[in-house]
Amino acid sequence: MVRSLKEYEVENNKSFLWPEGILIALLALGGVFSLAFMMLLRPNASEAQSRQSIDIKDVSANVGTQHRIENLKAAMLTSWQQEAQTKGLGYPLAPRFQGAIIEEAKLTQGEKVIALTFDDGPWPQSTEQVLDILKSNNIKGTFFVVGQNLKNYPELGKQIVAEGHVIANHTWHHWYHFLNPQAAAFEIDRTEDLIYQVTGVKTNLFRPPGGFLHNGLAAYAKGQKYAVVMWSADSTDYKQPPVPKLIDNVIKDSKPGGIVLMHDGGGNRSKTIQALPEIISNFRKQGYRFVTVPEILEMEDADKKLLANKKQ
Ligand SMILES: [Zn+2]
After folding, report:
1. Cα-to-centroid distance, 211 and ligand 1 (Å)
2. How many angstroms does the Cα of residue 290 sit away from the middle of ligand 1?
3. Is 119 a catalytic residue?
4. DSSP states along 129-158
5. What is the mean pLDDT of each run of 10 residues along the chain (312 residues)?
6. What domains are defined for the chain?
């Protein structure tokens, strides 16, 4: 759009409250510089002369462009901040889950959703195989990683997050024995820090190794406002059962809002890898949808809020 000098002046006086004189002087100066510049470039003065009016309009257009650039910059900053929020600041956790122990999501509508969780990675081969199966089925899972494994295989940790899965804290050493508060803090904080360094995610989900809730780790995690995430269906894949048994373990204990325990690391996971596609298709046949742990908790939170509003 080409605007007249007068329009430009009025508009800018409104928005910037510049004194009219200064504005005109600036525009005139701009015009003179443009003219001088044009004359340097084009020895043909008359042609430069004929372009003078256009040049003044160009000044106006340039200011418009400046505005557009500023707007674009602001938009880019906003989108970067949003991205940082999803990638860098972690997953929002409703206050009701901070410091709580969770075995499943309690969904009042019985929505057929289930959260697949994978522990003890990242692990060479098996983590990638799990990721590939999830990707080909368009499913997002939740990975409780062991700090020392993440240190050894940071690229796999990055891949987990890059492919849209949730990464969470499963301590540094995966110890079962009693830990004093300092040792528990080390186990959890060091893993938290490494997850952040490697992936940019600030996690607030913790799963105690072996599901032990009384050796000092869960107590420390609760104090740090972590959600202590257990499970409602255990594949017992760590015992390496025959594949049909592994599948059955998952399916028989699963219900809407359930959290399934499996392992992508910590040993030979070939049975888990074999069972996973079958488990997925079985759930799908039953009409289940797959969600991450933060998503399933968000659903429970929304359910509870709805219920509270109805009661009022
Ligand atoms: Zn574990």
Report:
1. 8
2. 21
3. yes
4. HHHHHHHHTT---EEEE-HHHHHH-HHHHH
5. 39 41 46 44 41 48 67 57 52 95 95 98 98 98 98 98 97 98 98 97 97 98 98 97 98 97 97 98 98 97 92 78
6. 5-88 (no CATH), 95-311 (3.20.20.370)
